[in-house]
TrEMBL record:
Gene3D superfamilies cross-referenced by the UniProt entry: 1.20.1050.10, Glutaredoxin
InterPro entries documented for this protein: Glutathione-S-Trfase_C-like, Glutathione-S-Trfase_C_sf, Glutathione_S-Trfase, Glutathione_S-Trfase_N, GST_C, Thioredoxin-like_sf
The protein's name: GST-like protein
Top-level lineage group: Bacteria
SUPFAM superfamilies in UniProt: GST C-terminal domain-like, Thioredoxin-like
Pfam family, one: GST_C
Domain called GST C-terminal: residue spans: 116-241
Domain annotation GST N-terminal: ranges: 26-113
Length: 241
């Protein structure tokens, strides 16, 4: 059987990525991702916000993330990235960097970023805490504990990131005292942060290493987050096959 590639919709034709990952639903937000802690931030947000979207698998291999088509949308060659055919002023917009995408989706819908100017600043504060601290430090911990860095004999790099992960968990545990969500109401700050907490167990096998039992507020927060139906759907988008 001959399978014809769907034609590129005119509003998306200016984006070379659509030549390799064509849109079957060009009126929807196009998500280019893989289910990593960074990738699922955006799929979870899209599910929580109820925005129509189409997910494309972009695997973490050079022929995908370093391809000319993908790098035309994200020159940094990292997932996730999106195209919104109904962007500002009604014109399509392509975006990369998970934190920037979360802020964009929250602004687009007026949801998940705080209802007042003060609340919005608190949400942004914790979002930046994730982008600059939790993500990079937990990722390095995973590298030196579970991946190629574990072969390095010098114990200092691994210990550095164990200690920093514990410190960050302590900050979060204290901030969560008496609260369900990190910035007060459920927000993109929670969506950004908790997938990294989940990865400590599911991907890095590091819960005992960081002493997660010493951070009960963090553990309860993680469990509340993972119980949400939209979160469960977003964690498996796009599917790994």
């Amino acid at each position: 059987m001959n399978m014809q590639t769907p034609a590129i919709a005119p509003e998306l034709a200016d984006f070379p990525i659509t030549r390799r990952w064509p849109a079957r639903h060009p009126d929807r937000i196009q998500l280019y991702s893989w289910p990593t802690p960074n990738g699922v931030k955006v799929s979870i947000a899209l599910e929580e916000l109820g925005l129509p979207y189409e997910a494309h698998q972009v695997r973490l291999r050079p022929e995908d993330v370093k391809s000319p088509e993908f790098r035309s949308l994200n020159p940094n060659g990292k997932i996730p990235a999106i195209i919104d055919p109904n962007g500002p002023d009604g014109a399509p917009i392509g975006l990369f960097e998970s934190g920037a995408i979360l802020l964009y989706l929250a602004e687009k819908t007026g949801q998940l970023a705080g209802g007042s100017a003060r609340e919005r600043q608190l949400v942004t504060q914790w979002l930046m805490f994730q982008m600059g601290g939790v993500g990079p430090m937990f990722g390095q911990l995973g590298y030196f504990h579970s991946f190629a860095g574990s072969e390095i004999e010098d114990p200092r790099p691994r210990q550095r990131y164990i200690d920093e992960a514990k410190r960050l968990l302590g900050v979060l545990d204290e901030a969560l005292e008496g609260k369900e969500w990190i910035a007060g109401e459920y927000s993109i700050a929670d969506i950004a942060m908790v997938p990294w907490l989940r990865a400590l167990g599911t991907t890095y096998n590091a819960l005992e290493l960081v002493g997660m039992e010493d951070f009960p507020n963090v553990s309860a927060w993680r469990d509340r987050f993972l119980a949400r139906p939209a979160v469960q759907r977003g964690l498996n988008t796009p599917p790994r096959d």
